[in-house]
Amino acid sequence: MSLDNLTKDWSRYRKGIEEGGFHNYEHRWGMAIDLNACIGCNACSTACYAENNLAVVGKERFSKGHYMHWMRIERYWDEDQAREEFPDQGAHFLPMLCQQCGAAPCEPVCPVAATYHTPDGLNAQVYNRCIGSRYCSNNCPYRVRYFNFWSYPESAWPEPLNLQLNPDITVRDKGVMEKCTFCVQRIRTAKDKAKMENRKVKDGEFTTACAQACPTSAIHFGDLMDAESAVTQLWAKHQVKRHDEQGLPVSTQHKQNPALRGYRVLEELNTDPSVMYLERVREELA
Amino acid sequence: MKETELHHDKDIRDDLAWSQINSDILKSLENPRRGYWYTVIGCLVLLAIGITAAVLQYRYGLGMAKNHPHMWNLYIATFIFWIGMSHSGTLLSAILHIVHADWRKPIYRFAEAMTTFSLMTALLFPVIHLGRLWNFYWVIPYIPARGTWPNFRSPLSWDGFAIMTYLTSSALFLYIGMLPDLAIARDNTTGWRKKLYSTLSLGWYGSDRQWRIFRKAYMLMAIFLIPLAVSVHSIVSSDFAMSIMPGWHVTTFPPYFVSGALYSGCAAIVTLFILLRYYFRWEEYMTLAILEKICKLTFAIAMVWTYLNLVEFSSVWYGHDIYAKEVLWSKMTGAYAPAFWSMMFFGSVLPFTLAFQKLRRHIPTMMAVSILLNVGMWLERWMIVSPTLAESFYPWAWDVLWPTLTSWAIVLGSFGWFGLLFLTFVKIFPSVSMYEVKEMVYHRKLAREKGAAHGHAGGAQPAFSLSMRKEDGS
Fold first, then answer.
1. What is the pLDDT of residues B152-194, one digit of tens each?
2. CATH architecture, domain defined by A19-278
3. How many Å lie between the alpha carbon of B353 and the closest alpha carbon of chain A?
4. Which of A48, A92, A118, B326 sits CB 3.0–4.6 Å from A122 for a disulfide?
5. pTM for the structure as a whole
6. Domains and their CATH numbers in chain B
7. What are the residue ranges spanned by the domains of chain A?
8. Over the stretch B172-181, which tens digit does the pLDDT of each residue have?
9. Per-residue burial over A56-74, b = 16 or more CB atoms within 10 Å of its CB, e = otherwise
10. Do A174 and B61 touch (CB under 8 A)?
11. Interface list for chain B against chain A, based on CB atoms closer than 8 Å
């Protein structure tokens, strides 16, 4: 190892060429979730259960924290909005899923490299390689990694419910970590199809199960590398950038125009999440 | 005679005959007090409980011990605890060897055994806590047929290397240091023991050349082991320090962990010292003067640990990182506050008992104090792992988890496992170094005679040492 090699900026090894890094990323899948549109109906979560063979754990195990929902709806309350007659006024929802970070804290800590970065900019989880040390979950600031605490296939799909399982993806047994994949099976299918037809993947050609199921179209999915895609344009409209011209990380914490609603969760940790949220706007109450 | 001089008794009687040393120590292989067997039974029971829990957990899944934000818990806390215990063996046998503190001679052998066995106990935990424990060897960089290597960026895989290296070296150190004693045991036993010691003593017959090579090898291992001991716990601390979680991402963790390790190890040495002294009637060898010296050492390390604790708290406090501050505050006032404050009491206040000579020489008090110090150190490890998991960056995932029965059972089982290994060792191998005690006795005698020739008192206080022996019950 030469001195030259040692003094290199090693963070460039995980960055794309457009950020001044070494990788020629094909795609960078991303999302924009509009909290103004989210009505908290849980359709995205349900769709995710169906698409990704997530185990239904039951009330008791759920209450113990043994849940497996890759997409979860969190509820928060703006307390100053509450009124005596409507104590729940001010409730709002936040769909939380794996943020597919560009600089994911979960990746370097896995002892067996079961979680790694794909050329699409996804955090892949290799179930067969996972030994269940759960270090990745401990280091995930969003806590969106779920562990198979029990052997769910034994109980979650009694006959004939096993017939509803999606044949495109595996059923995970006890002892492995799993998390949202941005419906990687759909991404692969679309990419294969595009390759067969000798073209690029078109924006809107496919979408994730959650985005597909959302009745208010709060979830937008697409390729952030594609300047024309709806997601890229939403990000640009709200001036949420992954990096500045020099390829350095930027934060929306100090955004110039407070009317722009875009932000990324826990951006200050410099995890470079691929999901942008659009803040919920409320009327000012007198 | 002044009060201070009065209590300055000898580490060991310098008129012990060499043959008496041999027979006294070798007796430990044959006739321990009955308490020894009671302890063995106790350890067997604990181990059975632990194994039952581990089998159940293996059958049904880790849900028996953990929940969503609490991916690590008692298992990792207890893992750090046992790794910590392993440090003082090296402190006594290697560091004190290099600085020529010869009072370590009667007690370093069992401390070194404690090192090896607590490492073997610690190694169980990362395996038990795995979701798919049958694949644990994937962390080891063996030559993989599929071309898959472990992730060298992960502190967990460094753990694997560090612990395996330390375990091999400390076992080797223990064995090398035991060679001359194994030869003595070979010459004084019959039956299966004779066969065992003949094989293990590697044809030692005590020639001048053998001794010279032996000294070199022993010194070399001692020097090799010291940086290893420091690095092992530093690496264990990077499991936490290298993460980004508030309360774990702390720069002072490596020295903090090492000091905590030496602390709990020294306290454990006091406990085992008292137990062995009782089991094998070793009042002549494990004297109160030596006990006092370890207690002083423990006190010094306790103060270092307290200082590093304060450093950590104040750097969090003045650092103004809201997340880290929140975790610290919730440790002090939240659900885990009772455990946190007991840790502070046992770890920083209780060691002041060691500052008083009367208490240091009172064996039942020291037994209780040394055990409580280790309870404090165990709580410290738990207070490192759990509060951060309970309250990290993301408020949705805030949850307090109290350890389940299964995890308690496995923790208890680990004490049984360690106890059995240790008790088996002391029954099969001489756990006081005979050749080094002889050396020590000889040196002391020489010093006394020289001192007498030059007109000094030279440590000879006949009136007092008589009364001491009475107090020791011999």
1. 889 999 988 899 999 999 999 999 999 999 999 898 888 898 9
2. 2-Layer Sandwich (3.30)
3. 38
4. A118
5. 0.90
6. 9-466 (1.20.1630.10)
7. 19-278
8. 999 999 999 9
9. ebeeebeebbbbbbbbbbe
10. yes
11. 60-63, 66-72, 126, 129-133, 135-136, 138-139, 148-151, 153-157, 160, 239, 242-245, 389, 392-394, 396-397, 399, 401
